Amino acid sequence: MTTYETTHAVVPAATDVTAELNELAGNGLNPWTPSQTSGSRAPRHREAASLDARNVSAWFGSRKVLDQVSLHMQAKTVTALIGPSGCGKSTFLRILNRMHESVPSAKLAGEVLLNGEDIYDVGQRITETRRRIGMVFQKPNPFPAMSIADNVTAGLKLTGTKVGRSEKADLIERCLTRGGLWNEVKDRLNTPGAALSGGQQQRLCIARSLAVEPEILLMDEPCSALDPTSTHRIEQTIHELANDVTIVIVTHNMQQAARVSSQCAFFLAAQGTPGMIVESGDTDQIFNRPQDQRTSDYVNGRFG
Amino acid sequence: MTILLTPEEEEDDPTVLADDDDDFDFFDGGQLPVAEKEEDSPRNIRQQLPMVDRIFRSTVKVIGTFVLILTGAIGLFLGYQAFPTFEHYGWGFLTGDKWDPSKDVLGIAGAIVGTVEVAAVALLIGVPLALLAALFTSEYCPRRIKPVMVAIIDLMAAVPSVIYGVWALFVLQTPEIDLARWINQNFGFIPFFKTDADPNAAATSVWGRSYYGSVFIAGAIVGIMIVPTACAVMRGVFDLAPIGEREAAYALGSTRWGMIRSVVLPFGRGGIVGGTMLALGRALGETVAVLLVITVVSDVKFRILSEGTLTISSRIANSFGESSGIQLKALLAAGFILFCMTLVVNTFAAVIVSRSRSGAGTDA
User: Fold this and answer.
1) What interface predicted TM-score (ipTM) does this complex get?
2) Rounded to two decimals, what is the model's pTM?
3) B89 pLDDT band (50/70/90 cuts)?
4) What is the 3-state secondary structure (H, E, C) of B266-285?
5) Which 124-143 residues of chain A touch chain B by CB within 8 A?
6) Mean pLDDT in residue range A141-161
7) Burial (CB count within 10 angstroms: exposed 0-12, middle 13-18, buried 19+), residue A270
């Protein structure tokens, strides 16, 4: 059996005190709210939040694609969603920040708790939910008409957040640094974002997501369109981000899942049935000591 | 070796093959220095088309060329017919604003200015309407209503212009005159909005008539008429705004309007400009509806609310029946001026649309 090296040493999330506090908040035991944690304006120290999906089902029209999936995503942890194509992992990810409902005919059931609050509650503002739960897409999608700097600050404009000039420059530098792109673009911040290479564009998209200070960052196969060097660079970025943001990443690449994540969930949809989670837990366990035969078959490349 | 052999003989005689070999010595790389390898040249890889394909292609080519020739011929005809007019009246034809065939004084300056004014008013009214209608159909209206909206807006283009003219005359004119009077009363200090009328007289009085048949009245109905043209182009490009960028905006926490401002409108800018220019081309040429509502006055006028105006096309339609000889030629010369104006506008539109990102995929 293949032995994968996992990243527990790199991301010591479980021992972090604030992460534990957020854990408690996620369970409804601690009345922490984001507004209390984000007091100062620049730089805001927003605490990473935990995300808890409970009995989430999804439909496109009358076709059910997810069947009562429950998954807990710990604060300041990288959770990888793996599984073969069409098993509903991307759909699940899009449910986590309310992008699912932008598809006509898409429906869902269950609840998604962000620090204990259901993001699908009728009292929740969808725009605020999406701002708190950022997303990086499979295909890099910078705004092509905007410069690199404007791309980074686009989220502020879109959410109506006003920032001062110097504060804005700081923010651009901070986000591009965190996205691992600063050194490559610091001399040409006013050139169009579309002129960058694919890997750079993807890191620009990560930087753009970070500018609105999300507590959670969802990544939908962020490296599938990139070459190995760019992929490596983005994986580094993910490692660094995991220190203060909760990350959920969908990937087809099992080595990548083993490299970047400390938690892992294996999705599977049998022929003609909706997707579900077969097994979830520590990445180390999923890859090296899977409990389920199907998980074992998948991570060892026997199908999928 | 000039002996002709049948295949059978070749097979029978083993020496023939050996001789053949000698003949091909030149091509045998082994016996010549590699440096003297023959220069290559690109080979012909154009495929031989079947007869049906060739017939179809040439038919399509002929028809396509015919359209070009037709348009070119109209332009040439007008230019050729216009020549004697310019010779006869000189620059006065373009700068004068009197139209008096009995004194042999013909000038279309008033009509040129009127054309531009009517088109400008039409764009001011029509483009915002078209833009909002396009945004609504593309972004806001429920998916089930969308085909209905599209069909209705397209239907607007199918209504004959004489119907618009009559409708403007009997329905639109009354509220428009009230509006014109209101603008005149409140913004009369702006030169464009001055009138010869007493703004405080009742609309129904003799003085009230002074708001009839103005540039404003004509521009308003033309503005409504250009909505479907502009709207169709704009909606087409808004629909093409990439889903990836839309989702990027939404994922940052954007509202729908924020997404439209940051993704749809920048993407659709070429379509907005192109649709506007295309609509302008139509506005410049609109004839019947304008002729029905205006009071014909050939003077150069800059007071758009004040009664009376004229456009090039309505000058032609108005005077064609009673003209002959040099006056008829003068009308064709006026038509040539209009042809050139619309040609320039439409060319600009095509260039702008094709250069923009959104326009590359459309053929507006």
Assistant:
1) 0.81
2) 0.77
3) confident
4) HHCHHHHHHHHHHHHHHHHH
5) 127-132, 134-135, 137, 139, 141-143
6) 90
7) exposed
